Amino acid sequence: MSLNRREFLKVSAGASGSLLLSLSLPGCAGLQTGYQEETGQWRPDAWLELTRDDRIFFTLARVEMGQGTYTGLTTLIAEELDVRPETIEQRFAPVADEYRNPLYNLQLTGGSTSVATSWEPLRTAGASARQMLVMAAARVWNVEAINCSTREGRVVHPNGIDSMPYGKLVELASKEVIRGDVALKPRDQWKYIGKQNHRLDAELKSTGAPIYGIDVELPEMVHAVVTRSPRYGGKAREFNADSVRAMPGVLDVFEIDRGIAVVADKYWRARKAQAALKVDWDYSEALGLSTADVFESYSRAAKDEEGESERSEGDYDEAEASADKVVEAEYEQPYLAHSTLEPMNATAWYRGARMEVWAATQGPDLARIAVARVTDLSPEDVTVNTTFLGGGFGRRLTQDYIEEVAAIAFRTDRPVKLIWSREEDTQHDLYRPAMLHRMKASLKQGDVTGWHHQIVGPQILNWYVRNAGPAQFPWTPKFLYDTLGTVGVWAEGIATPKDTSAIEGAVEYPYQVANIDIRHTQTDPGVPISYWRSVGYSHNGFAVETFMDELAHEAGEDPYRFRRRMLAQEPRYLAVLDRVARLGNWSGDLPDGRARGIAVVRSFGTYVAQVVEAGIENGAIRVYRVSAAVDCGQAINPRIVSDQIEGGILFGLTAALYGEITLEQGEVQQSNFHNYQLLRQYDKPEVAVDIIDSQAAPTGVGEPGVPPVIPALGNALFALTGKRQRTLPLKADA
Same domain, yes or no, for 273 and 296? Predict the structure, then answer.
């Protein structure tokens, strides 16, 4: 359609800037619109930007660490804005209240919550922007907005032929007001949600384009390494600073809170200087226990106190007293490292009154607190630039590496990059906690009448709240940071959220049993811990689903049918269980030397059942095939769902087969992939993933693939050998 001169000038005026929409996401100050006359630059409270030259920018409030938020969240915006997802350009969000995760009141990525918390808000945001653009075009054409449509970034005239690009309409659209709720696309009109879309970052990563933390390069940048105490809590008495400082390229050697920092002009020179460093450590207040001591302390705690009741139904003691048989079992799981392929690293530049940080972090607001804690800066003086993450798995929720680089940069007049070696990353991790489970169940005429589960081990919140508390209240004076952490632990479950890290996957016990008693006996031996992929579900899933297999054996029933009978009132559990039994050919014949095991776990709102087919070859466990059925609600991108479930399976198999961090006199014995092994490509099993077509709201998929595979493998080995393994990692000769 040809525009007259007045209409053309009116529309063209809108091309001089951009439309900035601060979308009504949870935690945002409210729906606002803004228009910048000159440059159209992004503003801190803005989420979506449409520019005069038809560029669309979406600010990602959640980081991309391989789990697919870069694609998934962009797809939600693209669907309702009616543009192809690949035409949207992404930016990682700076630290701002608008970008806090509403479930945690922190700006963090974790708990498989990114899509679940963004499902409706981001779709509403895209739909609102699209509606405002349509209203603007309708005014130009003097037609009814309801008769206009959109197509791939253009508003289409009612005649179906003429159209205008969004960029020509941004100024006019910014003046429009939407009254009432905006309509979202019905499911039958979706172009992108639920389709087999490619990953938007696939080409970028294939060509090496994205900047990870370890890739950051700045003018005149120097490099730092840190030598830390071999035992947690050790302090340096003295070290040969002068002789190391005299080595080629070394700029400085000094002590920081976490060890001895060496700063050099090149990374390898810093490492050579570190090798020449001799430190006399004071271990008087350091951790001195060994792995055996940890489990001995757990056993004592389990006997001395029953712990806090986390779920109580019926009367377990009465069920046990009237039972035909009482089955008991005890399960142990070791400490586990995260082993992200990109080790911990960060870059910081202190320039007078401010510090700028570039880091692969799952919590940029916590990173600001980490910087403020070790300098005389306030959080407002710190800028955090989030990069792509080469794996997170919960490790990058803790900001110890940020504290280190900030303390070093604060004493250096040039930008500083700190990189941990693989050995440092393994031996100074914050681990998945070791746990002990004491289980009892009462059986009567083949039915489970009572279930008792005592979980023994620490809570992660006690370690995490140190910087999380101040991050929620960044205006707090720094001398109160530690007080906030202490209060956060003391008020857990009252003024602060209850820490479920030890009990999740246990308290949700889904099987129909009349008498249930689930308890947590909290005991912390002092080994540093943090969140690990699937958190409490990883160890509780193993205990619950292995014990269920034991009960099926005691009752003389097929493990699949035993579970099915006890899940009669749980349709979503039944759906994945039945689906995986078919997918995994549960009742089918097997070659000699192989067996199948089954498990089902709901974690982070997602139901996953798995069948593992395994055997023993040449004295080693061999996993041939893993089948998985998944109900994650509406799948945004089925390909990413499959990839994440498969990735979780391989992550879980690594833990089941090899994962074990051990201590001797407080020192971690593992150091690199030769003795903290990852699953190798040649050991990768065939993986089949079946996604249930669901219209429920989407849930997370980054972690739910992990919990079922560990017990399913153990159950397969029992079916093969007749020997039940209750301690991880699993052994071929157990």
Answer: no
